[in-house]
Amino acid sequence: MQINNYLNRLEGNYLFTEIVNRTQAYQAEHPEAEVLRLGVGDITLPLPAVITDAMHRAVDDLSHAETFRGYGPELGYEWLRRKIIDHDYAPRGIRFTLDEVFISDGAGSDLGNLSELFAPGGRVAILDPSYPAYIDTSRMAGREIVYLPCTRENGFVPAVPDEPVDIIYLCFPNNPTGTMLTREQLRPWVDYALRHKAIIIYDAAYEGFIDNPELPHSIYEVQGADRCAIEVRSYSKTAGFTAVRCGYTVVPRATGLNAMWKRRQCTKFNGASYISQRGAEAVYTPEGQAAIRANLSHYKATARLLREGLQALGYEVFGGEHAPYIWCRVPEGYTSWSYFDYLLHEARIVCTPGAGFGESGEGYVRFSAFSARENCEKALKRLKNLA
Ligand code: MLT
Asked: For residues 222 and 92, is the Cβ–Cβ distance under 8 A?
């Protein structure tokens, strides 16, 4: 048997697994400690009742012969795909047909699975730092990675590669730096992809955090992107679906990849659950919209609180404006992992070490605003006491 040695050669644990392991080890030694979790971007507010009510009704549907359903369509139910087209894209002047939208069991799965559309090997451009799944997925497929540094010096705005690549992962609002690009700043990426016949995989998981109406919520707001970009979206960070698992991916026909992705999904994916799709459908009702706006406002307020609080304590911080993440420089003398350990042991605060997102993340830690206001206030107090 020949194993996939690329997978075997991945170093250490997945970043967020390592953080959980270190936190659990600390908690096991200090069971009485109140640990404040500002590490992984997992939502903390409960799902709005309008969504759970819809899911309860869906469970009831499945328990009666007249409304029972078996396997759903592999691409997702039409009633949800129609809502996505009409609500998430049409108001921005973007037109898709039903068969260009694929309901998923979350953005994370598709961001990895999309790699199967492309031949093994090849070159992939990835922002450095970036969400670690892009790197791991590319390594698993034996791809050569071209890292695009996002540093304080370039304002965390990457430059398009100066060499040909096949695939480009972009994520805006950015995880982990919180950077957001304007339409004009996205244009060169689309031009590059069209020129080099590359594909952009655009991770828009955090678009719900964009406050400025001038900023693009979708790569398709840039003309020509429908020929070179796949967009991946999530209900996790916008509607609190981290445990529910539902998202969607747009693969425009003009990319030439739509039929392939459909074929792949029909073979390997039996569709997202009926219950989670009914929950996602409820997001688009007026009550659903009001409820998720309220939750997003809460997280935006905790992001502001953390950002301003850290600044007041003398930290150099970035992000936290159109994103739930605050990218924070660690004090002199620390690496991002040593500062992570220091905060865990001395302040009982969990953050995410910047180096876990890539080499250019060294010297930073990321704080997540997916937390209660009270926790963020406590964290800031503890940081003040450390000073
Ligand atoms: C993060 O903390 O970067 C994300 O929440 C992790 C994820 O979405 O998988």
From this structure: no
Beta strands in 211-266 (DSSP E): 229-234, 247-250
CATH of the domain at 301: 3.90.1150.10
Task: Identify the residue whose C-alpha is closest to ligand 1 atom 1.
Answer: 41
CA 214 to chain centre: 21
Residue 252 lies in a domain: yes
What does pTM read for this prediction? 0.96
Nearest CA to ligand 1 atom 5: 41
Q: Give 175 Cα–ligand 1 centroid separation in angstroms.
A: 8
Q: Which residues does ligand 1 sit against, CB inside 6 Å?
A: 16, 40-42, 108, 131, 175
Query: What band does 43 get if pLDDT is binned at 50, 70 and 90?
Result: confident
280 C-alpha to ligand 1 centroid (Å): 19
**Ligand 1 atom at minimum distance from 175 CA:** 3
The whole domain housing 324 covers: 7-47+288-386
Count of domains for the chain: 2
Helix, strand, coil distribution of the chain in percent, nearest 5: 45, 15, 40
Gap from CA of 224 to ligand 1 centroid (Å): 29
Residue 355: count other Cβ atoms within 10 Å of its Cβ: 19
Nearest to 355 by CA among 376, 334, 370: 334
pLDDT, tens only, 112-170: 999 999 998 999 999 999 999 999 999 999 999 999 999 999 999 999 999 999 999 99
Whether the per-residue pLDDT at 8 is higher than 90: the answer is: no
